[in-house]
Amino acid sequence: MTMNLKSIQQFGLMSLAVMTVMSAVPAAFAEPATPSGKSGPGEQHQHKGERYKKYAEERQKFMQELNLSDEQKAKMKAAHEAFRQENKPAMESLKGKYKQLKQLGTDSANDAQRQKLKAEIRQEREALMAKKNASMQGILTPEQQAKWEAKRAERKAQWQQKHK
Length: 164
Prior knowledge:
Elements lengths: L4 H18 L18 H26 L3 H17 L1 H17 L6 H27 L4 H21 L2
Helix pairs in contact: 1-2, 1-3, 4-5
């Protein structure tokens, strides 16, 4: 199977748009738990390929459903790159906060600090994703926007049902 540059770019744009949609509910792609209820160190890597494959298939299917024009695909890619460059410092800040959170461990003495850090992370992520979603939504037609929002609502409902 040969792929030219245009088909690779199109796949990348499709991936970008669906990742944006799917990022609204990242816990839907959580690692499967071991029988003890916790993921072991080897468990994450064991299922990562399978999880990504499923995610990529869903993303590709959704991009086909949106039926983006070549112009829209190019605009999506440009918007994604602009977002990445513009928000690089914010993303680095988030990485640092995730690292801090991991270093706090599960000691009950750090509960208040851990909860505060989690709230900060959630707030920053939501702000970034809202900004990114707004830029991507501006590229879509009203019909595509409706499909996009329906998919986000569906994923959110699935996540909420799973985490009741």
